[in-house]
Design a protein that fits this description.
heterodimer; A: 379 residues; alpha/beta; 10 strands; B: 582 residues; 74% helix; disordered C terminus
Chain lengths: 379, 582
């Protein structure tokens, strides 16, 4: 099926290449990204081919005029990250709305159930993937040329989602309070060390981000036992805030460490001099942050052009330099682009793939987590 | 009676009752429709509200929630938290209102402007500010106290929750008490003074008793507020494993699965309906004997101030202490973090690395213009709608013999006892069902404003009821006897006397609708109806605490300006009315 798309698309793409900007005329933001990453212009050799899309898409995008995107980026980050796209495609207005995980899933699903479409492109909807699939709400993106820049395991077999960055969900810790020898070598070691008990560790309400991959790797029996012990023995502080907010509190010293912590946020804080480090017990949970397009999207052509650009080496590099996101493009698979590579590379890893996301194991894991999360009344 | 007189009487009867019926029906629909969905939703196990099917109702949610032993353990925490916060908040409010309205304490305009300012600060921000101040690990105040060998004070406790929520209850109670005291005829207090009673005795035997219905109404209202709020117990209770009803509902609706368990949340929320009905019945009993508490009569009056002597400076110090804990300290913390590259304790190193980056970032945010515009529209519509609707309802309740006035009073009060996040959900169901019939307001500002106004009716009617109660019918009857029409009586008698209450309700509603995130979060769909509270919530949720500090700082400064301006207008108008009546 994928080969069919490639053969079909080649003549159209060749014709459409004249409509894309040549790599030699790099947007200013792309030139800055090269400089920030200490790469020269030869890095973008082949970019023209990557950016080539069917002419019908570009013509359609020009008529549509905009793409509505719901995501997790900070507004300034999004603007900086998409600057090259806006230079290349000035006729496509990117209307971006930052929203929480629940809002991206729930609001869109509720609107869809009423026959209304409030976005074209969504990112990072792993927690709601099951519901979106149930409603058959996601478009097949296997015709997006940029998909060939990725490994096959980095997009859904039915094309309903494509990974656009890798995320690690390990542990952020306050370097002024935690000694390196206390850092757990494995996830089991985390529960054995008493120094993490009694509120020294914080967890946010995102088990899908890290625990699901571990359940999938070790099996349900291990998962149930581990999850119970996490709450009953470790007794972490349960924080309702998002991962990045809880990480910010770790930086402030409110906890000694928190799980799960996004590596990009820790890297940004550390670069400003904050006393925070990042550590990955083995195995390392890896998430693929997904980008999807709604089947009933209003601006399908613009959305496809945008997604294709996000998967290109230009889109991936600028995303890395502006947001510290780990690229997923095969040309950028290098320790240079992985924050805290020393704690990640060389260790076994477990990937949260779409099979796991849509599985009944996920439902059971979430049900157990919910019962433990909301249980307890304190005094 | 002659035929024409009978005809006129019949016509007046139907005109008056038509008006009463209109208010009754509109309020009934506005309150009962979402409640019906709330109840139906409690029997539904559908994933989404739009998938609700009346043929698939079940008791499963009730079984899960009300047969769970842990649900009953919530009662203790909730009882202690609610009664403690209410007692603390009401006591502070009574003292503050009495000082401002009845004594010669200096700086009244600043006190009146400053006390309601706390309303402008989102509960979550204030709770977060106190985490930074009184966290046993990193609290800035605890660091200072530790240097003196004191503490640490643990804000993550029932005591911490009571303290913060109590502070947050003060402004509302204060705004409700001030009009009562201002309009009170001092003749009874002067008579007590002339009979030898000291200030304390007069306060307890005369003033407090005259204020009793209003005070009880405020206490019931504040109990409901503490019961339904989740931000403070969420930030301060959850990390310590302390749950109350509101945080339990919030946790159910924010499970790890992205879809909330709506049905279970609705089933648990039924407790609020029961408490609301009980609380409203109690309030109705208290105000049923309104004549005994008439204070404003047809005779002329001038509010009287008690001379505190040198104690006025001590009193001022106490007021300043209250303002410090409720506004100044949290504001300073927010301002401090707004200039930091990352969160850290105050130190020379921290001050050296301060930056205006977060303020610059706000103005570079593409959405900020639209968010501010949406917020202004929403606030103006909500506040005006609340004042008008509440006044009309209160006129029917207090001034008419309409058979349904007591039911109307209960209807107006009920939404207040339902958590904002649950009422938001109920309205979501209503608006989504409405789209099937061509009523497309979901996703717009009007949807939010309607949901807010219905929720704020409880405060509006409590304030209006209490204020109208204190205007004796003598004044209206005198005006009508002199030939004034109904509308002229309203404009020349009611309006000037009610103006402080109108302004108070408008300001209170404005401040609340800016800071509350619960309902907007449920009804928000995108940039078309994104308001400031949602922007702040999203920024906080994403860990941009420093940017939240920047927005919080600017918001508080703006609202201080607004509150001061309104206060000056209110004082000016009141003085003009006073002058023209002399």
């Amino acid at each position: 099926m994928r080969m069919t798309w490639k053969l079909f698309g080649l003549p159209v793409m060749a014709f459409a290449m004249a409509h894309g900007a040549a790599a030699a005329d790099l947007p200013k933001a792309s030139q800055k990204a090269l400089a920030d990453a200490k790469l020269d212009a030869s890095f973008f050799n082949g970019l023209d081919a990557e950016l080539a899309v069917p002419k019908a898409w570009l013509d359609g995008a020009a008529k549509e005029k905009e793409v509505v995107i719901l995501g997790t980026w900070d507004d300034r980050q999004f603007n900086a990250m998409t600057a090259p796209f806006r230079e290349r495609y000035p006729f496509i207005n990117l209307r971006y709305n930052r929203s929480s995980t629940a809002a991206r899933g729930m609001r869109v699903l509720v609107a869809l159930s009423e026959g209304r479409v409030i976005a074209d492109v969504l990112v990072s909807i792993a927690d709601a993937m099951f519901q979106f699939n149930k409603m058959k709400a996601l478009a097949d993106l296997r015709d997006v040329p940029g998909i060939k820049n990725l490994r096959s395991e980095y997009y859904a077999s039915d094309g309903t989602w494509i990974g656009f960055k890798l995320s690690y969900r390990c542990l952020a810790y306050h370097t002024g309070k935690v000694k390196k020898e206390d850092l757990p070598a494995t996830w089991d070691d985390l529960l054995k060390n008493p120094r993490w008990r009694g509120g020294n560790m914080a967890v946010s309400n995102h088990p899908n981000a890290w625990l699901l991959a571990l359940w999938g790797h070790h099996g349900e029996k291990w998962g149930v036992d581990y999850t119970r012990r996490l709450f009953e023995e470790l007794q972490p502080q349960r924080r309702k805030e998002g991962m990045t907010a809880v990480t910010a509190l770790t930086v402030a010293g409110e906890f000694d460490a928190n799980i799960p912590a996004p590596e990009w946020r820790v890297a940004q804080s550390a670069s400003k001099g904050a006393p925070v480090g990042y550590h990955c017990p083995s195995p390392v949970p890896i998430n693929l942050s997904q980008i999807v397009m709604l089947e009933k999207a209003t601006n399908k052509n613009g959305a496809r052009v945008f997604i294709n650009w996000m998967l290109s080496r230009e889109g991936q590099l600028v995303q890395y330099t502006e947001t510290d996101a780990v690229p997923i493009h095969s040309a950028l698979e290098s320790p240079q682009f992985i924050p805290f590579a020393d704690t990640i590379i060389g260790k076994p890893s477990v990937v949260r793939d779409d099979a796991l996301l849509g599985s009944e194991l996920n439902e059971r894991m979430v049900a157990l987590w919910d019962s433990l999360w909301t249980g307890g009344t304190g005094k | 009676m002659s035929g024409s007189a009978l005809g006129y009487a019949r016509s007046a009867f139907f005109r008056e009752n038509l008006w009463h019926w209109s208010v009754f029906v509109v309020v009934g629909l506005a309150v009962l429709t979402p409640l019906v969905f709330l109840v139906l939703g409690s029997f539904s196990v559908a994933d989404l509200p739009t998938q609700f099917n009346i043929a698939e109702l079940t008791f499963a949610n009730y079984s899960k929630v009300w047969l769970d032993r842990e649900t009953y353990e919530l009662f203790y925490n909730t009882f202690v938290y609610v009664t403690g916060a209410t007692a603390f908040g009401i006591t502070m409010a009574v003292v503050l209102a009495w000082l401002v309205e009845r004594t010669n304490i200096p700086g009244k305009i600043w006190i009146y402007a400053g006390v309601p300012l706390t309303l402008a600060m989102p509960g979550m921000l204030q709770a977060m500010a106190y985490v930074l101040l009184l966290s046993p690990r990193i609290g800035y105040l605890n660091d200072a106290l530790g240097a003196l060998g004191i503490g640490p004070i643990d804000i993550y406790s029932l005591g911490g929750m009571i303290f913060i929520e109590g502070l947050r209850l003060v402004p509302t109670a204060f705004l409700m008490l001030v009009p009562l005291l201002r309009a009170m005829d001092p003749a009874l207090e002067e008579a007590a003074s002339m009979s030898g009673a000291g200030p304390r005795r007069t306060l307890s035997r005369i003033t407090m008793k005259l204020m009793l219905p209003g005070l009880l109404a405020i206490m019931i209202y504040q109990c409901m507020t503490a019961l339904e709020v989740f931000e403070v117990p969420g930030i301060l209770g959850l990390p310590a494993g302390i749950y109350v009803f509101s945080t339990k509902i919030y946790s159910i609706m924010h499970s790890a699965s992205v879809l909330p368990a709506y049905g279970q949340a609705n089933a648990l929320a039924m407790i609020y309906v029961v408490i609301a009905i009980g609380g409203t019945w109690l309030y109705a009993k208290v105000i049923s004997k309104s004549e005994r508490f008439t204070i404003i009569t047809g005779k002329g009056y001038r509010p009287r101030e008690l001379d505190l002597g040198n104690w006025r400076w001590v009193a001022l110090g106490g007021v300043f202490l209250f303002l410090t804990f409720s506004i100044i300290l949290p504001f300073l913390v927010l301002a401090y973090v707004s200039f930091l590259p990352f969160l850290q304790s105050p130190s020379l190193a921290a001050f050296k690395m301060m930056t205006v980056d977060h303020y610059v970032g706000l103005w570079e945010t593409p959405l900020i213009g639209r968010v501010l515009r949406n917020t202004i529209y929403m606030v103006v519509i909500t506040s005006t709608m609340t004042v008008v609707i509440s006044f009309l309802i209160s006129l029917v309740i207090v001034r008419s013999k309409f058979w349904g006035r007591r039911i109307l009073d209960q209807l107006a009060f009920i939404p207040h006892a339902i958590p904002g996040i649950v009422m938001g959900l109920a309205f979501l169901w209503v608006f989504l069902q409405g789209t099937k019939y061509g009523i497309n307001i979901h996703g717009g500002i009007w949807a939010m404003s309607i949901a807010f106004a219905v929720g704020f009716m409880a405060y509006g009617t409590r304030s209006m009821n209490a204020a109208i109660l204190q205007i004796h019918k003598d004044l209206e009857e005198a005006a009508q006897t002199s030939g004034a029409t109904h509308w002229r009586t309203m404009w020349r008698i009611f309006y000037p006397l009610m103006l402080p209450t109108f302004i108070g309700v408008w300001v209170w509603t404005m401040l609340h609708s800016i800071r509350i995130a619960g309902k907007p979060l449920l009804l928000y769909e995108g940039s078309e109806n994104q308001v400031l509270a949602i922007l702040i919530w999203n920024m906080w949720d994403e860990g941009n605490i420093e940017a939240v500090g920047a927005i919080g700082t600017l918001l508080i400064l703006f609202l201080l300006l607004v509150t001061l301006s309104l206060r000056l207008f209110g004082f000016g108008r009141g003085a003009a009315v006073q002058k023209s009546s002399n």
